[in-house]
Amino acid sequence: MTVMKIVSAPVHIRRLSILIVLVLSLILCSPDYIYAETFTDGIGRKIELTKRPERIVSLAPNITEILFSLQSGNKVVGVTDFCDYPEEAINKAKVGWLISPNIEKIISLQPDIVFATTEGNKPEIVDELERMNIKTYVLNPHNINGILSDITAIGAVTGQSSAARELVNSLTRRVDSIKKRALERSPKRVIYLVSTDPVISAGPGSFIHDLILTAGGVNVLSDSPIRYPRVDMEEIILKDPEVIIAPSDLIEQIQGWKKRWGGISALKNGMVYPINPDIVSRPGPRIIDGLELINEYIRNTPESNKKLNIMNHTLQ
Question: What is the pTM of this model?
Answer without folding.
Answer: 0.85
